[in-house]
Amino acid sequence: MTVARTICLGFLAVIAVGTILLMMPFSTSDGTWNNLIVALFTSTSAVCVTGLSVVDPGTYFSFWGQLFIALLAQIGGLGYMTTTTFLILLIGRKFDMRQKIAIQQALDRPGMSGSSQVIRSIIATTLIFELTGVFLLLPAFVPEYGWSQGLWLAIFHSINAWNNAGFSLFKDNLIGYQSSFLVVFTISMLIIFGGIGYQVILEMYLWLRDRILKKIQTQVFTLDFKVATSTTIILLLIGIIAFFCIEIRNPETFGSLNLRDQILVAWFQSVTPRTAGFNTIDISKMTTAGLFITIALMFIGASPGGTGGGMKTTTLRVLTSCTKTILRGKEEVLLYDRKIAITLILKAVGVLVGSVATVIFATILISLTDPTLDFIQILFEVVSAFATVGLSTGITGTISTAAKLILIVTMYVGRVGVLLLMSAVLGDPRPTRIHYPEENLLVG
pTM value? Predict the structure, then answer.
């Protein structure tokens, strides 16, 4: 039982428990036993923090069913190892070297020291942001739905936004709040900070603390921080400009709105493909160009160490830096005057190849099971599932059972990661002292 297998089987166990809970009569609004496929799909989508749903969560599930979805999304966002380690700390037990190695791999940390402090800081950060989101959303929901329902709506949407899950209790998701600056700002900030990574948030906090205390030695940002923040800002700006220019003439999305709401919707539409899944416009009414831009942003995804999925921003920067190095005729891949190790380059290539292969394979299978669907709809759904986004053109509930099972597997692969899943299947690599001769090969 390797660490990779422990993590993969742990996610499967949580999905199984979630499926059983969501099948119970007290989880559905009509008090009857839930359909197995619906329960399995919803549980997988919640644990994999995707947000795709074959039913309307707000009307199909009872309060208990909605609570289970929120808890599953919380566990999925924190990660299996983080959640289990936190429970171990709660009961006062010390975890051994194996668990420290598992935490290191699950959080992609450079070392194993201070694992318990890292877990505590992650839990504290999560609680701070989610509680802040709840308090900010209360003024938007309480006047319309009352205190009890308004409080639950604020809690549910804050948890889903921070964990980049995308489940909503509103029938039209957040379209009814597309002009509400408070709701759009709160949800988008939770999405961004939840997906950017805990390490980045910690460094940001230390930098602000040093600035406030006016310390002589200020915080030195790591390469992870520089790459994650700069890439996130660039992608957000590109998304805003692209969506605004493409959809502004579309009366079904941007065209019927005033300038303020158009900018607000363009901003949110640029944020939400970064593995969040909320939407303030009807995705099915977008132009083909707008859908393709959304697919590209979904495939890139969030940053490592966060609650989002996708190929990750750091992978994109490493690959683009490799291309830049080749074009300049150099041999060292540099990022912010730092040399990138060959192992990281190989890992980035592996992530890209594995991700593309998974999307292609799943798209082909669904094209065979549901041949009447448009290709752009199938590709959009598959990328949304793999990148754990949750956006949909509206076909999730109408596809065949076989297609739903394919999406379930795709969501799982996207959440645990292609490389981690392959490591779990193949086992830990064996060291070797054999070296082979080098030879040139025509490429490109």
Answer: 0.90
Would 442 be classed as within a structural domain? no
Strands 338-339 and 334-335: antiparallel
Exposure string over 182-217, b if 16+ CB within 10 A, otherwise e: ebbebbbbbbbbbbbbbbbbbbbeeeeeeeeeeeee
As given in the structure block, the two tokens for residue 153 are 């709506």
Rg, C-alpha atoms of the chain: 22
User: Which DSSP symbol is given to 404?
Assistant: H
pLDDT tens string 97-124: 666 666 665 555 555 555 667 777 888 8
Number of domains in the chain: 1
Structural domain that includes position 175: 3-426
E-strand stretches of 214-344: 334-335, 338-339
Q: Is residue 199 part of a domain?
A: yes
How many C-beta atoms lie closer than 10 Å to residue 276's C-beta? 33
Q: What is the pLDDT of residues 152-207, one digit of tens each?
A: 999 999 999 999 888 999 998 899 999 999 999 999 999 999 888 888 888 888 88
